[in-house]
Specification:
About 35% of the residues lie in helices and about 15% in strands. It is of the alpha/beta class. Strands 1, 2, 3, 4, 5, 6, 7 and 10 form an 8-stranded parallel β-sheet that branches. The protein has a two-stranded antiparallel sheet with strand order 8-9. Helix 4 runs parallel beside helix 11. The model has no long low-confidence stretch (mean pLDDT about 95). Bound molecules: zinc ion. Zinc ion binds next to loops.
Amino acid sequence: VRLIPAFGYPRIRWPEGRRFAFTVFDDTDLATRDNVAEVYRLLADLGMRTTKSVWVREGAAGDGSSCAEPAYLEWVRDLQRQGFEIGFHNASSVSSTREQTRAALERFEQLFGHMPRSMSNHSRNAEGIYWGEARLEQPSRTLFNLATRGLRRGQFRGHEPGDEGFWGDLCRQHVRYVRNFVFDDVNTLRCCPFMPYHDARKPYVSYWYASSEGATVESFTKMLAPGAQERLEAEGGACIMYTHFASGFQRDERLDPRFRSLMERLARRPGWFVPTSELLDHLHAQLGHHEISVAERTLLELRWLAGKAFLGHT
Ligand SMILES: [Zn+2]
């Protein structure tokens, strides 16, 4: 990974004299109220407002809860009242048609008072937008197809007009920020200093953002080790951690002790702890509109591919 040069990055002025920014986008895979409530209680106690994604429509049994469950929905709405952002993780844990996605976006707006501002693709859904090989341009696409033996070719079609799952126009109209690449660096800005960015090759997404790898409690706690926290602050950077809080952070009622102590340590630092879309709005206000160049896109894709090849992350 280190063979590929890093971008330099601009100095960001953080609000309220804070020295860096930190947030989490929580992918809702496997999550129920019971298996993540303690995680959110800790974040609320520490004054960290992050982003919890949801599915609107019921999916397959065992995938995790959706807003179709009244008790879960009530808990999610309570998180929103406490200042957490509610994000979108497609309409459901299973693939949706265009009409199902349209209905889910309308229902989301009814439930939460606005359309989703941030989202990530649920990695198995056919209506994934610019997902699989479609995340990449050449030459990275060919490298990706070689590495995956072409298994994900043409699998995701949310951006293809005429497909039954097409919802690109709805995404562009209603969703502001869509997640793409995840990197093995606590300072997401070091890997993607121009986020949020627009990519003219992917017109159905208004703005893309990158993230730092924290998919499970193991990678999350490794990424947020004390030395990494120090560096994030020293670099004046921003971390958008991509995780699944249902992946080992809480067992029964008990939080993973490493997670708890690292978050307590982070909360004592002079960071700006706001949800994903608020952090990205601030970057956008500071940096202005950014149209990604061919050179920037190629470097970003190759860095991601190298990390994926060596580390296996998403
Ligand atoms: Zn998912």
